[in-house]
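Table S7 (text form). Paired inputs.
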Amino acid sequence: MSSFIKNGLSLKTQVYGLIIAISLISFSVRIITDIGTTQKYLQTQMASHAKDTATSLGLSISPYLEEDNIMIAQTMATAIFDSGYYKQIKFTNAQAKVVFELINPKRVESVPNWFISAVKLNAPSRQSELNNGWIMAGTLEVTSHEGHSYLTLWEHTKRSFYSSFLLLVASLAVAFLILRAVFNPLKAVENQAHLVTRKRFTLTDEIPVARELRTVTKAINNMVMNLQTTFDSLTRQTQALTEEVYIDPLTGLGNRKSFENHFNSVANSISDEAPVTAMMISLPSLTNINKTVSYQDGDEHIKEVAKILKTIFGELTNAKVFRLNGSTFIALAPYDSDFLNRTRLEITDAFSQQKNSLHVNGFANCALVSVEKGMPKGHVLSALDTGCTIGVTNTKVDKDTLFSVNQWRSLIQSILASGEVSFSVQPVKRAHSQNKQCYFEVFAHFIHENEKVNNGHLFAMAEKLNLTEELDKKIIRNFVNVKELYPNDVFALNLSKASLYSTEFIEWLTLYAHTKPVLKTNLLFELNEISLLYNVHIASQHIDIIKDIGINVCIEHFGTSLTSFRYLQGLDIEYVKIDGSYIQDLLDNSQSQFFIQTVNNICHGFGIKVLACLVEGPETLDMLENLGCDGVQGNLIMPPSNVIKTIQSSTNKQFAFCADTLKFCN
């Protein structure tokens, strides 16, 4: 019943139900009316028959009413009575004495008792006064027998039922064929409307015959075409702007402007738990290749380096690579320099395999710098440039001194088995609202041996070891306890790339949501745009399953891929969260303003809400709201709360949560 209330009863079901109900009512009324009419006719016929018999029989036996001839009169009455159409024939003399009486109590066996009980026929009696000459001789009373009338009525009822039933079936069959011809195109319109609600805009080629449906179908097709035209126009404009302003045309990587925006967005969020390290890669032999061979070979050298960097840094979550100028690349990664040294060694090994005689000054030089909070990018670039020039890094670590893969495997398995998990949150506030939230973003922190484990390092190694799904499962299992305490508040959990593309994880999530129904409402998953673009088709299929469970989806770091937004078409998502690199210089950067406004226009056309993060100043907040953003997040709104829930073990749970509908403590 609740599903009917939520989803509504289909028009097809309602029309079929109405037709069947009307047909059954018509069928029933016809049978009842037919029976009633026949019943009245038979009742009248029996009365007329009794009257005619009483008159004719009375005239026939009048000459034989003397005592000596009464047997002749009785014999004549018996001959008529034996026909079976009479229940009783009785002659009473003038002294009110019954002279003779014939009775037939027999009932018709071929008529069911329930029918006799349901349809009443009263046996009518008629009288005739008999005279012997001029003297009143007595009264003859004739009562018709209803048995034959019941038999006639029963047979007529059966014929009427069968004929009416055949007519009912034929009418329903014809109605079904007609309605199917009407509802097939209506089903196509419904599917098209359903796809529109899932952000999938398709055209219906089959135009219905019915005028009303033709109008609706053409209107939806026109709406879809107009929206598609607007979407294509906006995406082309945005893509052209992005390519011109933020993308290096040779490598497809972000350019210096893109690096500066990204650096500004991460520089103020650095902490001991969220370090950032910069790596510069320079190509000292590029000038020699350009001079001695050709500029085309120099471009190929640059492309080869870019390919290597994309492959290696692509395995590190949220790590980004940029090309600053002709021979210089730079990467920013949310890891400390010790951890990133493993990546530097991988890059060095990959470069050594590419070295040949043209690389007279070496294939490439690398340098690392740990970025401190508030450090100017000029200082970072100067330190990296010096490191590349003299060929040293600020951290000299050999492979043997790094945390080994087996050690990471043991650490992660230990965390999965008995590690503690704590949660903190940061609200995403609705635009133009003081107290209403879109949702609360949840940050999970793993604790091992009473120390927090760096999430960036943990998930980067877990991805290499194919253990990311298990970490996500642990987070979800543990967070269920918080969700059960606050079922009416909307929370958002981050979902890794591995879990998004894992069929096994999606199946586990579906089954787990059935055992923990609290997951089916007021919950979102935030997906990184880079992870989503790995395979949009499979991601879209899994997002549909997640949506069917009841969990909404948000794409975070939106815009960092520097690719077309065309992938949004067909994704059934609730929010996109614009990357902070477009927020930091929003007040002075007209390109960022245009980008955010275009994102709002595109996403609102699809029914997707747009969020902005890293909001630090009131002027930035006002501009984001004026540009059309639906929600904002940042320290200006409220910094992350450090304590929501602490789980000490699987059997001993302790909770620390600020009450009053998530008014968090710092």
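Next pair, protein 2 of 2.
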Amino acid sequence: MCIFALAVAGCGPKSQKDNLTVVAKGEMESLDPMFSYDAVTQGMLLNVYDTLIKFKGSSLTEFEPLIAAEVPTVANGLISKDGLTYKFNIRKGIKFHDGTPLTAKDAEYSLKRFLISDAAGGPSSLLLEPILGTPSTRDDSGNIKIDYKDVEKAITSEGDTVTITLKKPFAPFLSIMARWSYIISKDWAVKNGEWDGTEATWKKFNNRAKTDSYLFEHENGSGPFLVSRWDIAAKRIYLRGYKDYVLGAPALKTVQILSVAEQSTMRLMLESGDADIAELSGNFAEQVASNPDVTVMDRLPRLKTDPVIFFTFNVNAEANQDIGSGKLDGQGVPPDFFKDKDLRQAFEYSFDYDSFVKDSMKNKAPRAIGPVPPGLIGYDKDGKHYDFDLKKAEEYFKKAWGGKVWSEGFKLVLTYNTGSDMRQTAAEILKRNVESLNPKFKIELRGIPWASFLEKTQQHKMPIWVRGWIADYPDPHNFVFPFLHSQGRYAIAQNFKDPQLDTLIDKAVKSTDVKEREELYRKIQGICYDDAAQIYTVHSPGVWVFRKEVKGFVDNPVFMGIYFYPIYK
């Protein structure tokens, strides 16, 4: 009997060597790759949908063929000398989970669908930017701005070959394809009411609600595992090994992924054997380190900047209790509260960075100077940064809003997602230090479930909030763009724009000169310091804790989860 049946209904059978039970912090968002952009969902989907190519083991620069028969290079003629055209020859003999063959037409359709779906807050920008030269299909007013004929020209197929033509050279393009070129069955999708692949209908499928997609609860990938059931209410998903997988059936027959908010519950499940793998935070991982039945991996390399504290420059005030009265009267804040740079700098100086690294991260994470993490060009451990200084914090608070912040005080909500004690701790540190400066400063901390957190982020409802970023692909552009470009994910959520940053970011990604890119990314992060638009804390490592019998784990710094195919017990 599962000893945690009351807390978590149903647990993994301890005795089954071909079953794996994983407990993770977040919740599944969708089975549709075009809508899902969070770590838990993407960590699952990389097991269900194969990509054209993949990273070789733990490498960030070497690739292996997967759906494609070979990795494109200039030497083999599959990349043009000008760096604009990429050809992928599709491997024969691959079957989707419904048993139908995978063809180049499916690959063409899938890539086009990724572009035209463009759900707000989704990952379509990752392909839109290099292929069409824009991170969105819509302008700032939400109106369609692309011409579908450009989509048709950019992605074509003939025989067994898919050809992609970029608008501009894009240095990390193969890295993007190794993570985001998910292939689905065109016939299956169209049969079930999805886009028919024509110009006449594509706009109907642009920026839909995620639940409007048939793929929200259904999948037909070609990966090593298929989804046998997703219990949305119970926050768990069940995978089954795909016996006809092109590289051979996986050793595991079943995988269960459970969303568990409480770290203490995760720890007890792991120690009792009711879970095989747990996504424990650093403090809880330390608690089980002496257990002979478990293996703690708490220094896994990650291209990750997390936690980061974000200011929203123009808050959506409609029915929004997070800003109280909506005025600078001591009982709330105005919607544009954080447009004042002096105020943002006051908050920057109020965070105790060194204590967070030492006490909360146990010195296992380097201090974040800007968005770019160690291991990528542009990282500069000696770059300009804010340090904890309450005297300077007080000085800037007294200047903010012409002195009104200090005299009137404020009241607002600082939000983090439940299940992340690291982000919660960062929020607590900031609250404690800011409130210590003036009794009129009031910050309420609020933890909310992941789905609600994502929704509030997209709706600009949170005046100040804590989140983080793990690389979609290993390149500094994937950090500076979402954080600092006006069309980036977090900049949009913050209503933040800096035209100078936009220009430099666009220039840096086009360059093929490593030295020039290095200089540009350092300059970008210098301007980032001057803007004080976000509070960067650490580049946190990955942490997974395993039962001893779990073998075959292969990590990659850009994985958003665990690749189950090589794992066995």
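The chain is about 30% helix and 15% strand.
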